[in-house]
Every structure is written in C-alpha cells, then in structure tokens.
Amino acid sequence: MVHKHLTLFLLIAVLVLTAFVTGIRSVSAAVVVDRGDIPVDVNLSDQDMNTYAPVKKIAVVSISAPQGVVFGEGDQWVRGLYYYSITKLGFVDMPFNYIVTWQGDIYEGKDGGYDVSPLVDGGSSDSSLSDCALVAYFDNRRETTNAGTVALSDILSELLSRYNLGRGDVIAADVVIAGAAEEGNPASLIVYASEDQDWRGTVSSSAQRA
Questions:
Q1: What pTM does this model have?
Q2: What's the angle, vertex CA 97, arms to CA 92 and CA 103, rounded to 5?
Q3: Distance separating alpha carbons of residues 115 and 193, to the nearest angstrom
Q4: Residue 83: which of 65, 98, 68, 101 has the closest Cα?
Q5: Which of 60, 175, 168, 159 is nearest to 114 (CA)?
Q6: In this predicted model, what pLDDT tens digit does every residue of 89-128 receive, in sequence order?
Q7: Among 178, 170, 179, 176, CA closest to 205
C-alpha cells in the first residue's frame, strides 16, 4: 500500500514538473534560424565595418515586399530580402538583426553575431534612434497572424531578457533609407519611433524587467 501511494505521488510530481517546465519553455528562448543556415552567397555582404554597441531599445518595423514583387514561402522571402538589400538598395548586408515572418519563422539577419549593430544611421534629428536592436516583421501584405505574433513575442522576450530591458523598451518603428549605392556610400537606415502600431502588448508579461 505504501509503495502504491509512493508511486502515485511520484507520478503526480512528474506530471506537475512536466507542466511547469512546459510552461517555462512556452515563453523561453526563441527558435532562430542562424545566419549561416540561410542559403545565400555570403561573398556579396561586407562585414569589415561591423560595429557593436549597448542595446537600449528593441525597435520593431513592419515590412512588405516591394510593390509588384511577390515572394512565396518565408525562407524564399528572406533570401530575396538579402539579395534585394545588397544589389538593389545598396546595403552591405540585411539591415535588420532579426526577421520574423507571418508564418512564425525567425531568422538571424545582419551577420556578425548576436550583439552586432544593425545598419542604422543615428540621423540628424533628435527623434531618430541608433542604440537599438532592429526586428523586422514581414507581414506579406496581410494582417498579423497568430503564428507571427507568437514568434515575435518569443524573440522580443528573449532580447529583453538578454539586454535586461523591460516591455516599455519595445517600440514600433518607421525606417527611412539613407545613403545610396550610386553615391559610393553604403545605404543605412534612419529609425524613428512610430505612433501607428504598439508592439509592447506582444511581449509576455514575464519579460518585464525586475
């Protein structure tokens, strides 16, 4: 009888522990496709001017395919973004730290490691931002999907934890391209806080800074 009670107790303990661990995993590290696993020609990008700086904000920008350009699956679109950024827009690489697709996939963008600065210009305006990690959400010209929202929440929560930031440090952003390839200067982004969208509600409340 004692053995039965002990077995039942252990079974309950295992079930409770499993539920607890599962609950933690649901808001823990995001599954990110490493830059090295994206099949692109890395020789086109230039990492010689990479910079690293403390991250003070997490800026989220919504992006769509250029007018008239249609990409299929998210992985195809990320490859297209890589080549389009370099060959058409004049960037030395994808300008974002991370790209989240409407399908719920997360890709590492700019090469150079976790703490590499995105291709952001400080700009001349007091309203522009520079010390930020830049996350792009590709909406594929549709409403934000459940899968995309979950993936975005995962990567934002992970970044806030990594940099010891709180939900108030997540901002919606608009970007403007500065510089032009024909002028001999690589392109960069000027980032402005946007009033059009608020992504803070996407982040799990567990990501709040203590």
A1: 0.78
A2: 115
A3: 21
A4: 65
A5: 159
A6: 999 999 999 999 988 999 999 999 878 999 998 765 566 7
A7: 170
